[in-house]
Specification:
By secondary structure, the chain is mostly helical. It has four helices and no strands. It folds into two domains: 48 residues; 34 residues. Helices cover 73% and strands 0% of the residues. Helix 1 packs antiparallel against helix 2. It starts with 6 loop residues before the first helix and ends with a helix. 4% of the residues are buried.
Amino acid sequence: MSKRITESQIITTLKEAESGMMVKDVCRKYRIANATFYNVTGKIWWYETPDISCLRELLEEKNRRIKQIYANFLDEVRELTAD
């Protein structure tokens, strides 16, 4: 069973890889697969941003708005199907 890589571990591994350490050595050190490393780096292009919490807040706000839109949509569908 695989473990989840933590946010701090992601940032640390990326910084070490950028500093010149070979990716395979970084992956071995943190016991993650090379594929996991590359998948994560491809998904989080924002890791260089100094204020990650700000990005997290923006994403959470966007997620709240999407959930609200979805809830409104479901209400409209229920109203239309109830008639």
